[in-house]
Please model this.
Amino acid sequence: MSSRQASIKRDTRETQITVSLDLDGVGKGHFETGVPFLEHMLDQVARHGLFDLDVRASGDLAVDAHHTVEDTGIVLGQAFAEALGDKRGIARYGHAYVPLDEALSRVVIDFSGRPGLEYRVEYSRARIGDFDVDLVREFFQGFVNAARATLHIDNLHGINSHHIAETIFKAFGRAARMAVALDARVGESVPSTKGRL
Model:
């Protein structure tokens, strides 16, 4: 059984969220958030990252989906941080380009110990069904803050907003998969000249 696992619970007046993560999974996902588009995107992360991911969220959706989406990003980031531990032996950096029809996105991640998000994405419309596209950035901002990761997200081409968002989440999954992979040449060392991340 993988030791690179985490289960995190966050309980606030706005949301109640539990995330279980296995970095060395096979891409199995289970999602109950009340936000169907978010669940579709989380499924992309699990499948393309080969993470086993279980996300259960209950939030103040009568207001809107903002708190549920943002807090899910936070808890997912916490789960990555816990599962990675001191980050010994990981590749640390990951990147991916993912196309979907006319859309193409690039995601680059560094589990650097320093939170930072560079997000360069323009959507052709403000909503994908009932989902506010601004929440994609909020999700990833929550993630980097909690995971203490540096994340660059660039949409290079795209017309269809669904395609744009989907390429971002798929590329994020693949980039994260590369970054958390164990590198035999790194061994038990931490991939930093500082000796810690």
Summary: The beta strands are 5-11, 15-22, 29-32, 52-59, 93-100, 103-110, 116-120, 127-128, 131-132, 150-157.
